[in-house]
Amino acid sequence: MSTRQSQFDYEDIIKCAEGELFGPGNAQLPLPPMLMVHRITEISETGGAHDKGFIRAEYDVAPDDWYFACHFKGNPIMPGCLGLDGMWQLTGFFLGWLGEEGRGMALSTGEVKFKGMVRPSVKLLEYGIDFKRVMRGRLVLGTADGWLKADGEMIYQASDLRVGLSKDKAE
């Protein structure tokens, strides 16, 4: 069993976004404001809904987050695509955490269900990513199911999130 770090605080998350956590040319998270994760509370290569590994993470919502001012005037909500992107961000993070090399890229998802909204009154988003498969070949590919809770209420679910790692150089 691995002795890799199993929790990451905001400082660690920013190191990942700056390309320092997994090394140059490897998986990175985006920098704020596109960063949709503030901490990883638990990560494991075993367990989860499919016993192939999982991540649990959190994001602190602030009433003045940038997206509320523009989406939508008079009816502020976080765009659903940002929650979905957070799921992809975590899927790619997992591949880098496993020690796989290459830059992450979201490839696809199966089905996405939105059952609620993130409004400025929400305080905490919780992510769950449960891995179904990690393929290690010319392309490293992670496939997972994910969910998002807003203040404890399940509001998004996604199946077959796919993220790959490419060894192509950045331009």
Automatic annotation (TrEMBL):
Its EC number is 4.2.1.59. The keyword Endoplasmic reticulum does not apply. It is an enzyme of class 4 (lyase). Transmembrane segments: none annotated. Keywords: Cytoplasm, Fatty acid biosynthesis, Fatty acid metabolism, Isomerase, Lipid biosynthesis, Lipid metabolism, Lyase. GO terms for biological process: fatty acid biosynthetic process. InterPro entries: FabA (IPR010083), FabA_FabZ (IPR013114), HotDog_dom_sf (IPR029069). The keyword Lipid metabolism applies. Pathway: Lipid metabolism; fatty acid biosynthesis. One of its GO terms (cellular component) is cytoplasm. Pfam families: FabA. It is found in: Cytoplasm. It comes from the Bacteria. It catalyses: a (3R)-hydroxyacyl-[ACP] = a (2E)-enoyl-[ACP] + H2O. GO terms for molecular function: (3R)-hydroxyacyl-[acyl-carrier-protein] dehydratase activity; isomerase activity. Homodimer. PANTHER family: 3-HYDROXYACYL-[ACYL-CARRIER-PROTEIN] DEHYDRATASE, 3-HYDROXYDECANOYL-[ACYL-CARRIER-PROTEIN] DEHYDRATASE. Belongs to the thioester dehydratase family. FabA subfamily. NCBIfam families: fabA, PRK05174.1. This is 3-hydroxyacyl-[acyl-carrier-protein] dehydratase FabA. It comes from Martelella mediterranea DSM 17316.
